[in-house]
Amino acid sequence: MSSKRPTLQQMQQSDKIDEAAIRAVLSGKPFPTPIYLWHAPRIPTFANAYILAKKHGITKVSTEVSQSSEGDHIAIVRLKLPATKSIRAGAGRHADPMIARGFAFRNAVRQLLVEVKP
Fold first, then answer.
1. 82: which residues sit within 8 A by CB, 6+ positions away?
2. Between the CA of residue 99 and those of 4, 45, 89, 106, what are the distances in Å?
3. What is the reported pLDDT for 108?
4. Interatomic CA distance for residues 27 and 49, integer angstroms
5. What is the pLDDT of the chain when averaged over all its residues?
6. Residue 88: its pLDDT value, please?
7. In the chain, what are the domains?
8. Residue ranges of the chain whose pLDDT lies below 50
9. What is the DSSP secondary structure assignment for residue 68, as one 8-state letter?
10. pLDDT, tens digit, for every residue of 21-53?
């Protein structure tokens, strides 16, 4: 069974889609259209992670942001899924600390979604 990995260009495009959605949330604007929900099966975009977090009542436990020696910000976000009481963490990296937090949020939601029955 072979698994096709995304190209660097595809990953960069995914990050751009998520960055635009994060900036929209931070500025109180609607998500850019069209709204992409999935990067791949079971890999939500930031917009979908945000929607699913609200739907499932996912709450923030903690957030940490630090700056690497290269200047990028590294964020770790811990979230809790009330239905299972599980806490999962996600990490993100970006030059802008708020975008790094958004990437970390998306990744933490993805970790929690494994426990949600479709």
1. 56, 57, 58, 59
2. 27, 13, 16, 11
3. 97
4. 18
5. 92
6. 96
7. 8-113 (3.30.160.20)
8. 1
9. -
10. 999 999 999 998 888 999 888 889 999 999 999
Contacts of 114 (CB under 8 A, 6+ apart): 42
- What is the rounded CA–CA span in Å between residue 30 and residue 26? 10
| C-alpha span between 1 and 15 (Å, rounded) | 28
Nearby residues of 68 by Cβ (< 8 Å), 6 or more positions away: 74, 93
pTM, two decimal places: 0.90
For residues 45 and 50, what is the distance between their CA atoms, to the nearest angstrom? 9
Closest residue by Cα to residue 106 from 34, 28, 29, 14: 14
* Tokens (6 digits) for 114: 């494994």
